[in-house]
Amino acid sequence: MDTKTSSALIELGSPSLGEPEKRALCAVIDDGWLTMGERVRQFEERFAAMHGADDAVAVNSATAALHLSMQAFDVGPGDEVLLPSLTFVAASNIVVHCGATPVFVDIDGVNNPHIALADAQSKLTPRTKAVMLMHYGGYVIDVAPWRAFADRHGLLLLEDAAHTAGMPGMGVLSDAASFSFFTNKNMTTAEGGMMIVRDAQRRQRARALRAHGMTSSTLDRAKGRAVGYDVIDCGHNFRMDELRAAIGLVQLERLLGWNEARRTLAAQYRRTLTRVAPEIEVPFADGQATAAHIMAVLLPEGCDRSQVMQRM
Ligand SMILES: *Cc1c(COP(=O)(O)O)cnc(C)c1O
User: Fold this and answer.
1) pTM of the predicted model, to two decimals?
2) Atom of ligand 1 nearest to the CA of 192
3) What pLDDT digit, counting tens, does each position of 203-235 carry?
4) 61 in ligand 1 pocket by Cβ < 6 Å?
5) The pLDDT of residue 6 is above 90
6) Beta strands of 16-115 (E only): which ranges?
7) Is the CB of 159 under 6 A from ligand 1?
8) CA 47 – CA 45 distance, rounded (Å)
9) Could you give the residue numbers annotated as active site?
10) Which residues contact 214 (CB under 8 A, 6 or more apart)?
């Protein structure tokens, strides 16, 4: 138990950091190149390789990644984006920031609290431009029927993969997948995010939008790979720095082992809860592919949630 906190509460996702991360940070300071250097590039390459993708784009949060995935595919004013009603607010915020309209789609049910295909179908209008999936709790959605749905209606298919770093299939069938390395996620860079975009041209567009819509980086120019730059798009400063990438490279090596440990613990909790408190429902199926990011449970109707939390 953490001795820094006097309460007996189990912490929600305190980060695992140690000597390797400290050494990696010191090495960045010794090298003196602080942002968008070789470590960011290596982090992108290794993250892409882990997910079977050609390449990835590192950014400073999943919110930034989601924003770029809209902008790189021209989602804007007049467009509607289908979102799960059970999701994190960043997803709907960025739709609004792009001038588009979020349209909430109900979940499939208590046992499968993922966006429901039948309700998505009923929310389609001539303005629908994209559908965003979110792999809630780390439980992986079967993306194939969604790809077929998106193709049938000419929609973009986007994934909010903030809960599923390291899981197979991310960004394979969708147009873009966004990951988070915020402090409470399965791996962390303190703040940070990553995008997997399969289409090389769209990925290049996202890369430019990440840094003010510029055609080359400071590192490119320092290394003689470019002499100047042009501004070709209305971009942002969504860059990742070398300190975060250095932590990310260390964390990435441990991610798959951590995910496995989470799965083991979640299965254990699931079995125990079924035995000692069968009135508590545990959504999703035992054995379903998951990064076990959050283990949500459903209390019986009328049960005082805060009292259960206290007594846990
Ligand atoms: C954490 C989270 C985000 C936002 O991630 P940041 O890296 O903090 O911007 C987006 N979507 C979901 C589902 C999340 O859990």
Assistant:
1) 0.95
2) 7
3) 999 999 999 999 989 889 989 999 899 999 999
4) yes
5) no
6) 57-59, 80-84, 101-105
7) no
8) 6
9) 185
10) 208, 229, 230, 231, 232, 235
